[in-house]
Amino acid sequence: MSTFSFSLQTGETGPLIKASTPETVRIPTHGHTALYAKGDQVLAGTRIAKALLPDEGDLHAPLAGVIEEIESDGILIRVTGKERTAPQEPPENGGDHLREWLRQSGVDAGSLRQANTLIVNAVPPEPGISIHAPLLQDYRKVVELGLETVLRITASAKTYLVTARGNRTNAFPDCTVLDVPAVYPSGIDQLVMKAVTGREVLLGTHPEDVTILSVRDLYLIGRVMETGRPVTETVLTIGGRNHLIMIGTAVGFLLQEAGASAHPGDRVLLGGPMRGRAALNLQQGVDKEATGLTIVKQGEGLNPTDNFCLGCGECEAHCPARIMPGMISRCAEFKHFARAEDYHIHSCIECGLCAYYCKAQRPLLQYIRLAKYELALLRTKSLHPIEDIAGGEA
Ligand code: SF4
Ligand code: SF4
């Protein structure tokens, strides 16, 4: 990892490349319930799954086809063509009506709420991920339409565009431009909000008077408004180039398209090198949260193992949330999930720096995500206060 660069400078990224049409798509359905059954035919744009949470966008078929399988975490569609559903007319009113229309059209609506300050995050989310650059340069009108649409819901008095210092950008009308150091993890939403407001915000919470969306979010909203069609595409960085892909396209198909290949023992991350989640296999469909595909070659990069914590404190020294990742990882390792709250696990912004610097190469981010997941499960399963699963000392 000695040559790893934390730089968020994007340089010249070239135009957006449109990926070819795959033969199948596997739409990840975590947090959604399927609306169709195996064997049903769907058109491009058919709403195939409904969100279980009120702010999550519904899911739509990107192409026409036959549903081959309803899996526990996805819907597999064999593509037969491009016949589409009729476009929908966007509502004339803004506010909640427009918000719900967008949500049903596949837009995640958690950030679409009234707020005095709107922040547009144009900072690359991770090193090597440059999804915002081609959208700001070549799809400016769509991004601006997205911004106008968002303002009809947020009714914000102030808008900020936050960029990484040195990256090319142009301001939107009536918008204040602010730059942050072009060094990871400056682009994480919580740190961008802190740069604008001076306040710290917990991951997954929404301050009442501030809301934040990325340039990619604005682009996707602009496309829905422009076409009257739901979100079925997203933008990913693969090998330094940005690709417009259909949600649900298999990881392996996209790597092949980009001229990249993963070998046995390599890991493919959905996202960048610091925060990306490992793909289970090359058939896994890309979800709409992913910002890129990153191959970590066997023997290169971080190879986390369940080594004992050395108590060296390196992870704490580099944690921007000023918490104790080592102690939290021990709580997760021994299933003392509730105790992780005593170490302020919810202040973690999931930047992955602790794992990068861990002397013992412990999988700290994975432990933290596991503990957060288990805590959320415990909350939903019980109305009673969370009890420690394992009991005893961590
Ligand atoms: S991932 Fe690690 S370094 Fe980053 S905020 Fe969380 S605990 Fe701190
Ligand atoms: S850096 Fe790793 S080994 Fe050191 S205290 Fe943190 S978790 Fe333990």
From TrEMBL:
<dbReference type="GO" id="GO:0016020">
    <property type="term" value="C:membrane"/>
</dbReference>
<protein>
    <submittedName>
        <fullName>Electron transporter RnfC</fullName>
    </submittedName>
</protein>
<feature type="domain" description="4Fe-4S ferredoxin-type">
    <location>
        <begin position="298"/>
        <end position="330"/>
    </location>
</feature>
<keyword id="KW-0408">Iron</keyword>
<dbReference type="GO" id="GO:0051539">
    <property type="term" value="F:4 iron, 4 sulfur cluster binding"/>
</dbReference>
<dbReference type="InterPro" id="IPR037225">
    <property type="entry name" value="Nuo51_FMN-bd_sf"/>
</dbReference>
<dbReference type="InterPro" id="IPR017896">
    <property type="entry name" value="4Fe4S_Fe-S-bd"/>
</dbReference>
<dbReference type="InterPro" id="IPR017900">
    <property type="entry name" value="4Fe4S_Fe_S_CS"/>
</dbReference>
<keyword id="KW-0479">Metal-binding</keyword>
<dbReference type="InterPro" id="IPR010208">
    <property type="entry name" value="Ion_transpt_RnfC/RsxC"/>
</dbReference>
<dbReference type="GO" id="GO:0046872">
    <property type="term" value="F:metal ion binding"/>
</dbReference>
<keyword id="KW-0411">Iron-sulfur</keyword>
<dbReference type="GO" id="GO:0009055">
    <property type="term" value="F:electron transfer activity"/>
</dbReference>
